[in-house]
Amino acid sequence: MQKVVDFLKSAETYYLATVEGDQPRVRPFGTAHVFEGKLYIQTGKSKDVSKQIHANPKVEICAFKDGQWLRVAGELCEDERREAKVSMLEAYPSLQQMYSPDDGNTEVFYFKNATATFSSFTSAPETVTF
Asked: How many domains does one find in the chain?
């Protein structure tokens, strides 16, 4: 899983795909953080993406860098614990301008049943599960 996190951080931006009814929704994200051995992302409860994840936790993310791309498919599980939110916000200090662990809006999710696939045009795909 560390290779996945390193790639996401190196790419800086990845795209998170959710579903709203029968319509796919994709938007840029930048948080990728390991807490207690799990890959976490962060958003705000007031956002449509949060509502979409709660309605259907199956998501996929995709990032591209230096001719290689990474896709991670899995389910997101909300972690309501304050310490998980604090850990994320400490890892991403710039988020502290918009979010705090006690604001009622900050939301962190971790991946479960995840399959990550590294691909490129020059080598065979590599798959990691976590």
From this structure: 1
Supply the range of the domain harboring residue 89: 2-129
pLDDT digits (tens, 9 = 90+) for 75-123: 999 999 999 999 999 999 999 999 999 999 999 999 999 999 999 999 9
Q: Is the Cα torsion angle 116, 65, 52, 20 positive or negative in sign?
A: negative
Question: Is 38 exposed, middle or buried (CB count within 10 Å of its CB: 0-12, 13-18, 19+)?
Answer: middle
Q: How far apart are CA 43 and CA 66, in angstroms?
A: 27
CATH number, domain containing residue 120: 2.30.110.10
pLDDT of 2-38, one tens digit each? Answer: 999 999 999 999 999 999 999 999 999 999 999 999 9
With vertex at residue 53, the alpha carbon angle to CA 117 and CA 25, rounded to the nearest 5 degrees, is 70
